[in-house]
Every structure is written in structure tokens, then in C-alpha cells.
Design goal:
The protein is of the alpha/beta class and about 210 residues long. It is built from seven helices and seven strands, in the order H-H-E-H-E-H-E-E-H-E-H-H-E-E. Helix 1 packs parallel to helix 4.
């Protein structure tokens, strides 16, 4: 997801289609990193239609899902209700949204693509929202995807690098920081997209 309030109408229109834009299943890297983590309180920053938030809720997490598209959030709300799951859906411009500091056991930022200054500020606040003993997972299209992968934004300024993401997560210990490959089905067959994946932690209190 890219942009801010000025692009909300465009995303509302895209999400208003008959099909889910990103599908119903969680992102494969989100599932890999969080499937075995004990449930607590989670924050999904840039949740879209809520595929990751709903998946976490199904595992017992108390989830807050934030996005600027009211259409996406309404769709997520319906999907969660159909599965008997509760998610706290919040419509907000992520560039100014301020989550509760230290309030979440897991924070997720998945495919949120903003200009560097805005993304850094969002990641700073997301990192600050991680509770002691908690974690943050950040995944998005890597800059190498322009030449080595497929899909995603074509503006290098909004693409991720391991270095830019880890630099924005001050106060956390990085456990995983790497480029990863994701299989994408295209009209020309299966291709590999290149993503940045970072999983960082806030150490628990000493003693």
C-alpha cells in the first residue's frame, strides 16, 4: 500500500471490487514469523482488508487493525464477523497515527510503501509501540525487486532495503533482517518477487 489521504479515494475504489485485493490468507512471511508466538495484543499497521489481522485474531490475538481506507476496513470487518472474530478496526492516516507506546506484544507493518521520511516516522512509532518482550515484523517490496523481481511499486524511493528498515527500529534488537523471495503467479507463469523482511524484538525487563 502506498500514499496518504490524497490517495484514499483511489484505494477505496480498488477495494470496492468484487474480489479481495490481497486474498484471504495471511502473507506467507507474516505467518512464518508469528504462527508460533504466544497470543497477546497485536497492532497491524496498514491492514488493508485485514487478512493478517483476521488471521492473528483467529489465533487468539487481540488485534488493532489500522488503515486509511474505510472501504478496506469495512470489508475486513465483514470478513471477521463472518468468522466470528473480533478486531478493533481503526481508520487513520498512518503518517499521523500514534499507537500506544509499549502497548503491543506484536506489531506488523506489511507492504506499507511511503516516501522515506514518512515511512521512517511510521516505523519509529511502530517500534515504540512494541512492549517489553514483544516484537515487530516488517515486510515489503525490496528495492532489488525492480530489476530482479516482479510486481510492486516501481518507484525506488518507496521500496525497502534491509538497512533502511533496521535503521528506523531504534531501541529494538534485530533477530532477522534479510531479503526473501515470494512466488507470484503471472500471465507468463510463476515469477519470484523480492521482499525485505525484518523481525526485531524489545528485550524483556532484566531479572
Amino acid at each position: 500500500m502506498t500514499g496518504g489521504p490524497s490517495e484514499a479515494a483511489g484505494w477505496d475504489a480498488r477495494y470496492a471490487g468484487s474480489d479481495l485485493v490481497w486474498g484471504a490468507q495471511p502473507n506467507q512471511f507474516v505467518a512464518r514469523e508469528l504462527a508460533e508466538v504466544p497470543a497477546g495484543r497485536a497492532l497491524d499497521v496498514g491492514a488493508g482488508e485485514g487478512r493478517n489481522a483476521i488471521w492473528l485474531a483467529g489465533l487468539g490475538w487481540r488485534v488493532t487493525a489500522v488503515d486509511f481506507s474505510s472501504v478496506a476496513l469495512d470489508r475486513g470487518r465483514r470478513l471477521a464477523a463472518a468468522r466470528g472474530l473480533e478486531v478493533d478496526w481503526v481508520q487513520a492516516d498512518l503518517r499521523v497515527y500514534r499507537p500506544e507506546p509499549g502497548g503491543f506484544d506484536a506489531v506488523l507493518v506489511a507492504y506499507l510503501h511511503l516516501v522515506p521520511l514518512d515511512l521512517t516516522e511510521v516505523l519509529n512509532r511502530a517500534a515504540a509501540a512494541v512492549a517489553a518482550g514483544g516484537r515487530i515484523v516488517v515486510v515489503g517490496h525490496d528495492r532489488a525487486n525492480l530489476t530482479e523481481g516482479v510486481g510492486g511499486p516501481q518507484d525506488p524511493a518507496v521500496l525497502y532495503t534491509v538497512e533502511s528498515v533496521t535503521a528506523a527500529l531504534s531501541g529494538l534488537e534485530v533477530g532477522r533482517a534479510e531479503t526473501v523471495h515470494r512466488t507470484v503467479t503471472t500471465v507468463d507463469g510463476e515469477r519470484q518477487a523480492v521482499d525485505t523482511l525484518v523481525h526485531a524484538y524489545r528485550p524483556p525487563p532484566a531479572g
